[in-house]
Every structure is written in C-alpha cells, then in structure tokens.
Amino acid sequence: MREVLPGIVIDPEIRGGKPVIKRTQVPVDVLLGKLAGGAMYEELMREYDLTRAQILAALRYAAMVLGEEQVKVIL
C-alpha cells in the first residue's frame, strides 16, 4: 500500500490499484462522480461513512493529478 497524498492510498489488492480513501475501499473517482452529479458532502459522509476531511483529500488528489497532466494540442 502506498500513500500518494495524505488520506489517499493505492494498493493493487484494493479496487485493482485505483486510488481510494485511506482505511476504506471508497475510490476517489466514485466520490468525484457523485459530487459532479450534485451530491452534497453530507450525503457522501453518511453513505460512505466518511469525514469532510476525507472528501477534501479526494478533491486535492484530483487537483494534483490534473495539475500534472500535460495535454498535447495538434493543430
């Protein structure tokens, strides 16, 4: 298990190595999708037994990954 950001881990044995919230099996992409779909923090906290800090860790991870992404534009 490797912690890639505080609160976010990657483990090949958990969800096929997808980034998940530490000490859970909740994938970051699932949380992001639910937030994008209009879910409120409180809903996710109840549904997945998470804290606000854990949800914010998922958002920080997504921001970090997107910040490192390089896109080639071919004109």
From TrEMBL:
Gene3D superfamilies tied to this protein: Winged helix-like DNA-binding domain superfamily/Winged helix DNA-binding domain
The organism's place on the tree of life at top rank: Bacteria
Membrane-traversing stretches: none
PANTHER family on file: SSL5025 PROTEIN, SSR2962 PROTEIN
Protein name from the UniProt record: DUF433 domain-containing protein
